[in-house]
Design goal:
The protein contains 11 helices and 5 strands. With 279 residues, the chain is of the alpha/beta class.
Length: 279
C-alpha cells in the first residue's frame, strides 16, 4: 500500500527524458503500473530484464535517483545485488541512474551530549550523504528513522548508554529530518522527494531497537509529510505489516531488524511503483 499524505505532482526528471523513462518500465508493460499490478522484481539477472533503450545515454542525461538511508538502504546482510537500490536500478532500466547512499547504523538525529560528544552516528556527517546530495538528483528516496528508534540499551540489557539513546532526542527528530529536505532542495529545487515510513521492528536481538519507539518516529514522519507540501510519504511499514506475521518472520534476517532478500525486493517494487506513477 502507498500512504500518500500530499498531492501528487510531477516527478523531477527532465521533461525531455520522460518518454525514455516511461519506456523503461520493466518488460515493456507500463499498463501493469497503471492497473496497480507491479512486475516481479529481482528474480532474474539485471541485464535480462532492465529496459535497454537508454544504455547509450550519457549518465548526466539520465534521470538521477538518489537513495538516502541507513542499513536497510545500504543492504546490510545482503549481497550487493540483493539491495533495494540495485533492484530498483534493474527495474527502472538504463534511462535512470540509481545511487545507493545508504550507510549502516546511522540516524537522522544530530545532537551533542553535555560533554560535547556527538550522539550516535548522524547520517548528515557522512561522506556518503554528502555524495548523495552532490548528485543533485532528480528523485530522492529517503528511508530513515530506524536508528532514531533506539534507546541505547546495551546488548546484555544491563544499562542504557547515553551515547546511543537517540530516542531521548525524539522531539528534535523533525527538525533534523527537515535539514535533509533543505539540503535536497538546495541541491535541486525541482527534485521529487519520497519519504518512507520505515519497515517494522520485530523481536530484535539488540534490545535497544523496539517497535514502541518506531511507532513514535512513524508519527513524526507523518507530520513531516503534512508540513512539507513537496514531500510524498509512502508507507513501507504498512506494506510489510499487510504481509502478516508469518511472512515477516520468514523474510527478515536473524537479527529481526533487517529485511531479507524478499523484503528488499518488496521495497524496490514499492519505490518503483511510485516513480512510474509519477513518470
Amino acid at each position: 500500500m502507498v500512504y500518500c499524505i500530499v498531492q501528487k505532482h510531477t516527478a523531477g526528471c527532465p521533461q525531455e527524458n520522460r518518454k525514455a523513462h516511461r519506456a523503461g518500465d520493466m518488460i515493456g508493460k507500463p499498463e501493469t503500473v497503471r492497473e496497480g499490478r507491479l512486475p516481479v522484481i529481482g528474480r532474474e539477472p539485471c541485464q535480462s530484464r532492465a529496459d535497454r533503450r537508454g544504455e547509450d545515454m550519457p549518465d548526466e542525461k539520465k534521470c538521477q535517483v538518489v537513495c538516502l538511508g541507513d542499513s536497510i538502504t545500504e543492504g546490510f546482510g545482503l549481497k550487493w545485488e540483493e539491495s533495494y537500490p540495485y533492484l530498483l536500478q534493474c527495474a527502472l532500466g538504463d534511462a535512470y541512474k540509481v545511487f545507493n547512499a545508504g550507510v549502516t547504523a546511522h540516524c537522522v538525529t544530530d545532537e551533542l551530549l553535555p560533554d560535547g560528544r556527538v550522539m550516535g552516528l548522524p547520517y548528515v556527517r557522512t561522506e556518503r550523504y554528502a555524495q548523495g546530495i552532490a548528485k543533485k538528483g532528480d528523485i530522492y528516496v529517503l528511508l530513515l528513522g530506524t536508528n532514531d528508534a533506539q534507546d541505547g540499551m546495551l546488548d546484555d540489557g544491563s544499562a542504557v548508554d547515553p551515547w546511543g539513546n537517540i530516542f531521548s532526542k525524539r522531539e528534535h527528530f523533525i527538525a533534523h529530518y527537515e535539514r535533509n529536505l533543505r539540503d535536497i532542495r538546495g541541491a535541486n529545487p525541482g527534485a521529487k522527494i519520497y519519504a518512507g515510513r520505515p519497515t517494522p521492528v520485530l523481536e530484535c536481538i539488540w534490545p535497544k531497537h523496539q517497535q514502541k519507539y518506531l511507532d513514535v518516529i512513524l508519527e513524526k514522519i507523518d507530520e513531516i509529510g503534512r508540513r512539507n507540501a513537496d514531500v510524498v510519504v509512502f508507507d513501507l511499514y504498512g506494506t510489510f505489516r499487510e504481509k502478516g506475521d508469518t511472512w515477516l518472520h520468514e523474510n527478515y534476517q536473524a537479527d529481526r531488524l533487517h529485511p531479507g532478500p524478499e523484503g528488499a525486493r518488496l521495497i524496490a517494487q514499492t519505490v518503483y511503483g511510485l516513480i512510474m506513477k509519477d513518470a
